[in-house]
Amino acid sequence: MKTTIITRHKVGNIDTWLKGHQDRLDIFKTAISDIKTFQDADDPNSVAMIIEVTDMDKFHAILKDPSTETFKNKHTVLDPITLSMPVKV
């Protein structure tokens, strides 16, 4: 089942982070079908992504995988990463 989530975090350098888009697609390819990227209008180093997740367990496993830290550092991702899940209203 596909789930649409929103992630938010800051980056140390927006240009470096934007260049890593293909890496993000490659890292998460087994767990997602799409990523839409946004930049905060008031803070250029604050980003959000709308992600179509196809396998939430795999997605969380990739986030927690120690090898993912290498890419986070390369792309200047700053913790915390906030995940927002859909709610039924």
List the helices and strands and how they pair.
Layout: E1 3-11, H1 14-19, H2 21-28, E2 32-39, E3 46-53, H3 56-64, H4 66-74, E4 77-84
Question: Which characteristics define this entry?
Answer:
single chain, 89 residues, alpha+beta, Alpha-Beta Plaits, 4 strands
Short recap of the structure:
With 89 residues, the chain is α+β, with helices and mostly antiparallel strands.
What this model shows, in words?
By secondary structure, the chain is an alpha+beta fold. It has one domain: Alpha-Beta Plaits. It is 36% helix and 37% strand. It contains 4 helices and 4 strands; from the N terminus they run βααββααβ. The chain has helices at 14-19, 21-28, 56-64, 66-74, and strands spanning 3-11, 32-39, 46-53, 77-84. A 4-stranded antiparallel sheet has the order 2-3-1-4, with helices on one face.
